């Protein structure tokens, strides 16, 4: 029955991680997988998560393992939407004609960011039938898998300029202006682009919003690093809020993940937010029903444990403050490692320009090594990174950063 299955590609970050685990070399370094690691190279449960867990497990709540609604935990969803769109903090610049900007957003809980991307793709594929989806080149590889499985034709736009090692604004605008059609979907990383760490500037975001508006494209934001990128959750949501509040983008999606910013990777906490036109009440009800129908047939409802942790933290001002402190701890350590790696390469006078290491933001950097160099560094130094040269900065620490810089220097010179 299964003897003629077509070959299926392995997921690279997970297979690189597997190879790293198998490696017994004492100096091995894992820069492959996108997870936060502390200074001693270990997973770091956020302190605020530990506090929330104590509160939750002390509660002796007999209902704690009950089913959620299909839509998910409603209190969690409202807090999650507030975090994305800035509702309820007095920071929204929504025009007065929209009485309650919340009424434009339908939110459902998902199996983390991947599930939100998948559900959104399924919603659009079945109901809007977009001509194609425009995926940044490069991107998080799973975007391709998700949209392939949703049966939507995939096209790419040239996201990265490898010469300037920054966002390719001209190439993106040119490609989308010339070739995108009404109702095509455009995948946008809301902040801390994975894998390049290069984001559009605010002016460039503004131009992208105008282009989407003018051409009737459907923006699909992937928000996997809010607060984790800069340490400031508002700043990292700027692009989405700009599309929503200032550009009045009529319809778009946001896939939100709490994997990185709460360190809840395996708990699978996320949400899909679908923005609709102002105050079209039936539309939001129908949309909600459609999403619930898709969820019911797929996984019935998302898991409750991790969402309860996030809800507990976001609902409590004191815990929220502690969360901001934890975000700062993570983002500052990553920043520090960017600077240390950069300084080490300068000290070694490694050929090349390494400024992008400190200019790019978030968890990842496109270090600028070729595939043969990546394979050589793995073979000789037991340092693991993706073939594209993407490195996860949080795999660096004071003990290994000198070794990594030396290895980069060596493969660059040979
Ligand atoms: N989108 C992007 C761009 C990501 O980098 C990730 C995590 N690697 C995700 C979505 C989804 O992660 P998760 O399913 O763990 O939320």
From TrEMBL:
Reaction equations catalysed: L-aspartate + 2-oxoglutarate = oxaloacetate + L-glutamate
A Gene Ontology molecular function term of the record: pyridoxal phosphate binding
InterPro entries in UniProt: Aminotransferase_I/II_large, Asp_trans, NHTrfase_class1_PyrdxlP-BS, PyrdxlP-dep_Trfase, PyrdxlP-dep_Trfase_major, PyrdxlP-dep_Trfase_small
SUPFAM superfamilies: PLP-dependent transferases (SSF53383)
EC number: 2.6.1.1
GO BP annotations, alphabetical order: aspartate biosynthetic process
Methyltransferase recorded as keyword: no
Keyword match Plastid: no
PROSITE patterns: AA_TRANSFER_CLASS_1
Pfam families linked: Aminotran_1_2
Enzyme class: transferase
Cofactor: pyridoxal 5'-phosphate
Domain Aminotransferase class I/classII large, residue spans: 27-408
Keywords: Aminotransferase, Pyridoxal phosphate, Transferase
Annotated transmembrane regions: none
Subunit structure: Homodimer.
Family designation: Belongs to the class-I pyridoxal-phosphate-dependent aminotransferase family.
NCBIfam families: PRK09257.1 (NF006719)
Note: In eukaryotes there are cytoplasmic, mitochondrial and chloroplastic isozymes.
Official protein name in the record: Aspartate aminotransferase
Species whose genome carries this gene: Penicillium cataractarum
